[in-house]
Amino acid sequence: MTSDVDTALPSPALAPTVADVMRPAVTTVEPGAHLAGAAYLMKHSGDNALVVTANERPVAMVTDTDITQAVADGRNLEEVRISDLPSREPIVVAPGTDVLTATRTMLLHGIHHLPVVDGERLVGIVDMTDLCRPLVG
Hints:
Blueprint: H1 18-21, E1 28-29, H2 35-45, E2 49-54, E3 57-63, H3 64-72, H4 99-109, E4 113-118, E5 121-127, H5 128-136
Helix pairs in contact: 4-5
């Protein structure tokens, strides 16, 4: 039985890059913001993750999972600040990173969102859906 799906990956010279699929990181949040504010921003922006920035530089990520966990733990979202959450320096990619490499990075680290930086300045964000589109379509 043969498949009509082409399983060949594009050659690296023609491979799409993160810049081709990223969205501008229009909605960001500061470390001192309350989780309730982050949840509000996510709802109104349609995002399920926000880049936490300080001086236009990504310093963390806050996701809908972080908010769900805080609610499940009985924490008051009006009192908990993003800086109260356990965090680590976010894993980032450059706009010129090819989509396959960015996808592998997410899988390797068990994450679903990557801030896109030019130098240290935030220029966008990609999630697994953004990266999978050119790989399957």
